[in-house]
């Protein structure tokens, strides 16, 4: 079990592989969000000391084309795309019609107006 300590500057954290971790919601290199219980082995009680650092859920938009200038979309708040997809697939999607009069709906990854 990891021990929560306070450094000389008053920051709470714990040591993993000789690295002082102050934000348990991210990997040691701060590059990837992690589940601190699964990744570091922290307990719920230990996490209460870092509650103020917990990332806010992100908004993920799912949509489906209905007509040329109309689509239905829903916004799901979740901590990851996998979690949002799971919520969506389990019936947690509340689709609402959205009109797109200014342009034709295209895939997010394309820009049909761009010319070479």
Can you offer a commentary on this structure?
The protein is of the alpha+beta class and 116 residues long. The protein folds into 2 domains: 5-53, no CATH class; 58-99, no CATH class. Helices cover 17% and strands 28% of the residues. It contains 3 helices and 6 strands; from the N terminus they run βββααββαβ. It has helices at 36-39, 44-47, 81-92; strands spanning 5-6, 12-16, 19-21, 58-67, 70-78, 96-99. The strands form 2 sheets. It has a 3-stranded antiparallel β-sheet with strand order 1-2-3, with no helix packed on it. Strand 4 (58-67) and strand 5 form a beta hairpin. The radius of gyration is 21 Å and the shape is elongated. The N and C termini lie far apart (58 Å).
Quaternary state of the chains: single chain
- The span between the termini is 58 Å
The main pleated sheet reads as: 3 strands, antiparallel
Number of structurally distinct domains: 2
Question: Could you name the ranges where pLDDT drops below 50 across 5 or more consecutive residues?
Answer: 109-116
**How many runs of DSSP E, i.e. beta strands?**
6
What structural class results from the helix and strand content?
A: alpha+beta
Please state the CA-atom Rg, rounded to the nearest Å: 21 Å
């Amino acid at each position: 079990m990891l021990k929560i300590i306070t450094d000389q500057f008053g920051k709470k954290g714990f040591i993993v592989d000789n690295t002082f971790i102050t934000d348990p919601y991210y990997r040691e290199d701060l590059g990837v969000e992690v589940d601190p219980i699964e990744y570091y082995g922290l307990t719920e009680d230990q996490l209460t000391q870092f509650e103020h650092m917990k990332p806010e859920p992100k908004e993920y938009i799912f949509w489906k084309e209905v007509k040329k200038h109309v689509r239905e979309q829903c916004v799901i708040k979740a901590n990851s795309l996998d979690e949002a997809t799971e919520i969506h697939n389990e019936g947690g999607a509340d689709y609402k019609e959205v009109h797109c009069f200014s342009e034709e709906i295209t895939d997010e990854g394309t820009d049909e107006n761009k010319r070479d």
